[in-house]
Amino acid sequence: MPAANDIRKGQVIKHNGEPHLVMETQHRTPGNLRAFVQVKMRNLRYGKALDQRFASTDTIEVLPTDRRTLEFSYADRDSYAFIDPNTFDQIEMTAETLGDVKNYLTAGGKVDVLFVDDKPLTVEIPSAVNLKVIESADGIRGDTTSNVQKPAKLETGLMIQVPLFVKEGEIVRVSTADGSYLGRA
């Protein structure tokens, strides 16, 4: 097993029996103390970030990872199916594993999946996606002085606020970070 000095950003390590993604590392040597490595990492199962200090001589278990690009196929209740376009293997994930990502998945959409020990752990999507508006009230012009918005339901079931001029059937660009309207596609 490698020493704590060998930990690098982007690696997945096992800490307290859980996989953690290393986001930042810093090697420190205070004046009269022993050297240590300060690691900022995120628990891949629960999403919680934490800072951990390791002695530079500690051994750390680095987990083998694999990152693959998959295509979203379909959703069935609490299960979401993805297809590997190279091998045509089907991989299923639960809504709990996906989290908020499920609000931005459309058939044929590509996602990057991080596998640890051949188990899918995290799903990364682009910073913005194009989604179709399936339900939106008609905008009523009135005494407006600024940007007035109305609720709209998208094809994935996500509700967002859009400007009054957006109509049903239009494709809009949505930020996956906060679910905000970015513009028409």
Task: Draw up the topology in text.
Layout: E1 12-15, E2 18-28, E3 36-43, E4 49-55, E5 61-62, E6 65-76, E7 79-83, E8 90-94, H1 95-98, E9 110-116, E10 119-124, E11 128-136, E12 149-154, E13 159-163, E14 171-175, E15 181-184
Antiparallel strand pairs: 1-2, 1-5, 2-3, 3-4, 6-7, 6-9, 7-8, 9-10, 11-12, 11-14, 12-13, 14-15
List keywords for this structure.
5-stranded antiparallel sheet; OB fold (Dihydrolipoamide Acetyltransferase, E2P); single chain; elongated; 185 residues; mainly beta; 1 helix; SH3 type barrels; 3 domains
Strand pairing plus helix content: what structural class? mainly beta
Instruction: Give me the CATH superfamily of the largest domain.
Output: Nucleic acid-binding proteins
Instruction: Report the radius of gyration as a whole number of Å.
Output: 22 Å
Report the biggest beta sheet as strand number plus sense, adding barrel if it closes. 5 strands, antiparallel
| Shape label | elongated
Which CATH-level-2 architecture of the largest domain? Answer: Beta Barrel
Strand order of the largest sheet: 4-3-2-1-5
Instruction: Count every beta strand, where a strand is a DSSP E run of 2 or more residues.
Output: 15
Cα separation of the termini: 49 Å
Number of helices: 1
Strand content: over 45%
- Per CATH, the class of the largest domain reads Mainly Beta
SSE string, helix = H, strand = E? EEEEEEEEHEEEEEEE
CATH topology annotation of the largest domain: OB fold (Dihydrolipoamide Acetyltransferase, E2P)
Helix percentage range: under 10%
